[in-house]
Amino acid sequence: MSDHHAPALPIANRTVFFVSDGTGITAEAFGHSVITQFDLKFKQVRLPFIDDIEKAEDAVRRINEAFELTGNRPIVFSTLVKPDLASVIFKSKGLHMDLIQTFVAPLEEELGIKSTHTVGRSHNIADTEEYKNRIEAINFSLAHDDGQSNKNLSLADVILVGVSRSGKTPTTLYLAMQYGIKAANYPLIPDDFERGKLPSALPEFKGKIFGLSIAPERLSEIRNERRPGSKYASLENCRYEVNEAEAMMKREGIRWLSSTAKSIEEIATTILQEVKPDSRL
Amino acid sequence: MSDHHAPALPIANRTVFFVSDGTGITAEAFGHSVITQFDLKFKQVRLPFIDDIEKAEDAVRRINEAFELTGNRPIVFSTLVKPDLASVIFKSKGLHMDLIQTFVAPLEEELGIKSTHTVGRSHNIADTEEYKNRIEAINFSLAHDDGQSNKNLSLADVILVGVSRSGKTPTTLYLAMQYGIKAANYPLIPDDFERGKLPSALPEFKGKIFGLSIAPERLSEIRNERRPGSKYASLENCRYEVNEAEAMMKREGIRWLSSTAKSIEEIATTILQEVKPDSRL
Fold it and tell me: Is B166 helix (H, G, I), strand (E, B) or coil?
């Protein structure tokens, strides 16, 4: 989790392509997790919306050009569902990593039925309930950012608490955007620590509260970018707030994690496991 | 793009597992795009953070339980980088779709080097420049939502324009969250149409403006959820605003797309292709 001081990787004179009939987001995310297993830096090119023969032939030209330019076979991760488009891409001079064909064939055998070769179904979320849920959840999270509103907190799936700048806002937006989860967030501030109590709107919702904490050193760094030299950003004050917030969460029996060394995705996944707001989706 | 009236799929008495040493987001996204090739509805279970032998053995127990419960082999998509963890999972009674091993081996041969078997490197973004960029971009997008601020528009990578409720906010947040792109958004309102001009803050940034339009019928539906029966939401007014906005974008030479039948991901990918704000990332 902490190779941010890792030396720069040697550059491979080789291009990696992510070819998709949709956005290519899945092909890229997956291909990226494969190539990061090698200590080499690759030039990476996403080719989305390859959904007819002409575009596929154009993609082949680009792959072959990269071969001629570098003298090395490009690596091609593709998620083309339609066999006729996939077979055009197979003619390129790249090394083919076809995600769909590799796994669909054994599944057809296991399930005893044929696949439908339907493009982009997993992304077909416009006009559906799921799409509406996401937009609604984003609006909810924006309206309930930073304790702005106590209205409709009962409708929240999750309520994040933590000191200012502990990562609450990006996490609530991610939960809304990716999972359609209505996530409110509520800051814990010095007033709350002096009173020694959770903000008064919260106790009745304890079952869906989740806390974020953060290392005081990191918090001070982040706050100093916004308000350099302020008391708010001082290490001393950050230590005080973090200690108080953690003590309060322990006292109140609130589950929490430290966001310091975690990505937004990791924080969101942990919250999903702990609070299980998706169990009713 | 329009099977939202598709009949409910028959339910397969079979569980699909997504097993990962990280969040499992990639395994799930990819596995989902494979299983949606079959006209069956599966029970789906994500098992994230499987990063030691004990957790792997626990995952095996859950997979085997699903086998006993259903009488059908579960399907297991896994992205376990460490061979010792992967080999524990392989002992389960599931049908194994190992994304890493399947593609890493041929790549090792092609590249002539061994993979590093390093866990979660592609998600290792905490503490890095990339992570900071994303958080900064989210803050920028929030501060520049709905034309709230003209300050620092010169720092924006993209400025989205369009009528109210055309999908600008979710798109800017997605661009920020996924790509660290600073995206502002600016509404086009009846005042602008009467003046026949873009909002005065915008013309100097025309190179990075991108427009969203939407079918008037859909817009009216969306607006009616917020303000039922209002003039704002009426089909007549929505037709007027959409026509005027599209005419203005054509006149001003602004690239645009219709968000009506598109997912947030598809809109964002198209913007990346057109405006190329990531070329300097």
Answer: coil
For residue B23 the two structure tokens come to 């969040």
Residues 232-271 of B with CB under 8 A from A: 260-266, 268-270
CB B234 within 8 A of CB B220: yes
For residue B165 the two structure tokens come to 């409720």
Q: Do the annotations mark residue A196 as ligand-binding?
A: no
Residue B125 forms contact with A (CB below 8 Å)? yes
CB contact under 8 A, A29 and B24: no
| Residues in A 142-161 with any Cβ partner in B closer than 8 A | 142, 145
Q: Is B182 a residue whose pLDDT tops 90?
A: yes
**Complex ipTM, two decimals?**
0.82
DSSP lists the bridge partners of residue B160 as B185, B210
List, in order, residues 6 or more apart from A20 with CB less than 8 Å away.
A26, A27, A46, A47, A48, A49, A50, A78, A79, A80
Going along chain A, which residue ranges are E strands? 11-20, 41-47, 75-79, 95-98, 158-162, 183-187, 209-213, 256-258
Give tens-digit pLDDT for B136-164: 999 999 999 988 888 889 999 999 999 99
Tell me: the pLDDT tens digits for A3-51? 444 456 788 889 999 999 999 988 898 898 889 889 888 999 999 999 9
Taking chain A (281 residues) in consecutive chunks of 10 residues, what is each chunk's mean pLDDT? 53 92 88 88 94 97 97 94 93 93 89 77 55 89 89 93 95 94 95 95 94 97 92 97 98 95 92 76 43
Q: Does B103 touch chain A (CB under 8 A)?
A: yes
Q: What are the structural domains, with CATH classification, of chain A? A: 11-123 (3.40.50), 129-280 (3.40.50)
Task: Report the relative pairing of strands B209-213 and B183-187 from DSSP bridges.
Answer: unpaired
Nearest-by-Cβ selection for A95 from B110, B263, B265: B110
Nearest to A173 among B3, B99, B138 (CB): B138
Give the nearest partner residue to B26 out of A29, A117, A169, using CB atoms.
Answer: A29
Q: Do B269 and A23 touch (CB under 8 A)?
A: yes
**Which carries the bigger pLDDT value, residue B178 or residue B67?**
B67
What does the block give as tokens for A175? 């939960």
